[in-house]
Amino acid sequence: MMRHSAAHVLAHAVTALFPGTKLGIGPSIETGFYYDFELPRALVPEDLPLIEAKMAEIVKQNLPFVKETVSRAEVEKIFAGQPYKLEVLADLPEGEDITIYRDGDFVDLCRGPHVSHTARIKAFKLLSIAGAYWRGDEKRPMLQRIYGTAFPTKAELEEYLKKLEELEARDHRKLNKQLDLFATPEELGGGLIIYGPKAGRIRTTVEEFWRREHYDAGYEILYSPHIGRGTLWETSGHLANYKDIMYSPMDIDGQDYYVKPMNCPFHILYYKSQTRSYRDLPLRWCELGTVYRYERSGVLTGLLRVRGFTQDDAHIFCTPEQMESEIAEVIRFSFHIWQTFGFKDYQLYLATRPEKAIGTEEQWQKAADVLRKVMDAQGLKYKIDEGGGAFYGPKIDLKVKDALGREWQMTTIQFDFNLPERFNMVYVGADGQEHRPYMVHRALLGSWERFFGLLIEHYAGAFPVWLHPVQVAVLPISDRHLEYAGNLTRELKAAGYRVNLDDRSETINQKIRQAQLDKIPCMLVIGDKEIESGTVSVRLRTGEQKFGVTPGKLLEGLNAAVRERATNLAL
C-alpha cells in the first residue's frame, strides 16, 4: 500500500511540475513502483531530484488519501482530458464499482487501497526513467516511465540502494563493455547476438561438458533444421496457440515455411520415422537447438530476453510406467548440472493449467499429480504457480538463486499428453498392440543466452578457473624474458590450458592491470629472478601473490582448481 501510494504522490508531483501531463498507470511492483506519463517534453535524469523534492513537499503536507465511489459519467467528466484513463475506464465491466482517490488537489482512477495519509510514506527514492509502450503494445504511444522505490525506514532504503549499486556493477551489459564478450549491432537487428572469441571459448567449454554429461546420463544428441513447413506447426498446435511469437512465414515452392520457435516437432518426426517398440523406451534425445521467437522490442534486455537463442533442449519418450522414474532422474540431473556451475540454492514450482490450454481437465489433473508425486517422494519443497503451465501440459520450473539472492527462471520439466496424440505417436507394447507414449520436454540451462547472462552477473565476470576464456596470463617484464615466457606458454598449452602470452611493449604494471581488468584467474610474472631459478611469480586476481613457484607446482594448483570447479586458484 505504501509503494502504491508513493506512485500516486509521484503522479501528483509530475502533474504539478508539468502542466498538460497525460496519466497512464502507476502500480506497485515487487521492489517499488512506477508510473507512466505522456509529458510535454522528454525527461532527463536531472529532473528526478526536482520531482523527488516536490514529492517530499506533498508527503510533508500529510494529505489524506480519500476514496470515493463515483458513477461512470462522473469519471468521464473528471478525466475528460486524460485519454489513457478513459481507456482504462472503458475496460471496466458495466455494473462494477468505480473508485477514485484524492490527495489534495490530485485525483486518480484507482481501486486502491492506500495508506491513510501521505506522511505514511517514510523513505522513498526515484531510480530511473525508461520508455514504455502503452499497454506493452509497440503500435501504441511510447510513454515515459519513472521508476521508484519506498521502504518503511531510511535504513532499509539505504540497504536496498546499496544492493542496487551491486546489481549495476554486475550488470552483464556493463561488464561486457569491459570484458568484450558479445556484440548487439544495430545493423543486425534487436535481440540478435554475436559472440566474440572469449564468449566462444566459454560456450565451447560449457557445450563440451554438457555433451559429455548427457551421454553419460543415457541421452543421444540430435540435430534438426531451422525451418519447417507450415503444416508441421499446424499439427503441433503452435500456429493456433503460439503464432503471436512466431515469425512471418516464407514462401518456398508455393508453401509456407516457418523458422522454428521450438525443437520438439522435429524430434517427434524422427521418432515416427520408424516403428518403435516398448523395448526401445525410454528414448532420451537432446539437442543444442537454436530457435527464434518474436519478442517486442520494448522487452528485449541484453542476453536475458532475445529473439534468437539456443536451448539445451531434450525430449524423453517413455511408457506410462517409466514416467515417474524419468522425471525423478531429470530433477536429479538438473541439480547435478547446476551444482557443477556453482549454484546450490533453488526454488521449485509446480505450474498448473493456464487459461489457454489444450486437453481435458482430467488429463491436466492426472499429469500434475504425477509431477507432484515425484517431488513429494523425493521430499522436495515446492510452490504452486497457478496457471503457469505450458499450453500443452503442466510443468516443474526450477528457479536458481544467484550470488545476490535473485531468482532466475531456468530449468523446466514439462509433461506433454498433447503432442503424442496430435502426431499419432505409438509404440508396440508387450501385448503386440499399439500404445501411446508419454512425452517429457526438458531444458536444464534453459537457453545459452540467458544462462550466459546469469553466469556473467553471478560471478561478476570473474568466471571459475575451468570456464574462464583465458586461464593463465604469462607476463614477461621485458623482451629478454620472452623466450622463457614462450616456452612456459607452450608447456601450459600442451597441458590443456588456455594461455595468453602478453608480449606487448608495455610496462609490467600495465600488463598486470589489463589482466586484472580481464579478470584472468592466474597471472605469471617473468623476470630475471624467475629465469635464474626456473620458477614463476604467481599473482592471482584476488590479489594474492606467491614467488618462486615451480611449473610443476603451478600445474598441480591449476589441475586441482579445474577438477574441483573452483572459482579461484589456491596457491
Model description:
- By secondary structure, this protein is α+β, with helices and mostly antiparallel strands.
- Helices cover 35% and strands 26% of the residues.
- It is built from 18 helices and 28 strands.
- Strand 5 and strand 6 form a beta hairpin.
- The radius of gyration is 29 Å and the shape is globular.
- The protein starts with a helix and ends in an 8-residue tail after the last helix.
- The mean pLDDT is 94.
The first-to-last residue Cα distance is: 53 Å
Rounded average pLDDT = 94
* Strand-pairing-aware structural class: alpha+beta
| Strand segment tally | 28
Radius of gyration: 29 Å
- Order of strands across the main sheet: 11-15-16-23-20-19-17-18
DSSP summary: helix tally:
18
What amount of the residues lies in strands? Answer: 25-35%
Biggest beta sheet summary: 8 strands, mixed
Concise account of the structure shown:
With 571 residues, the chain is an alpha+beta fold.
Question: What is the secondary structure topology, with strand pairs?
Answer:
Elements: H1 2-17, E1 22-23, E2 28-29, E3 32-38, H2 47-60, E4 66-70, H3 72-78, H4 83-91, E5 98-103, E6 106-109, E7 123-133, E8 142-151, H5 154-170, H6 172-179, E9 182-183, E10 194-195, H7 197-216, E11 220-221, E12 227-229, H8 230-236, H9 238-241, E13 250-252, E14 255-259, H10 264-271, E15 283-292, E16 308-318, H11 323-340, E17 346-351, H12 361-377, E18 382-385, E19 395-401, E20 407-416, H13 419-422, E21 427-428, E22 434-435, E23 438-447, H14 448-458, E24 472-476, H15 482-494, E25 499-501, H16 508-517, E26 522-526, H17 528-533, E27 536-540, E28 545-549, H18 551-563
Parallel strand pairs: 11-15, 17-18, 24-25, 24-26
Antiparallel strand pairs: 1-3, 2-3, 3-8, 4-5, 5-6, 7-8, 9-10, 12-14, 13-14, 15-16, 16-23, 17-19, 19-20, 20-23, 21-22, 26-27, 27-28
Helix pairs in contact: 1-2, 11-12
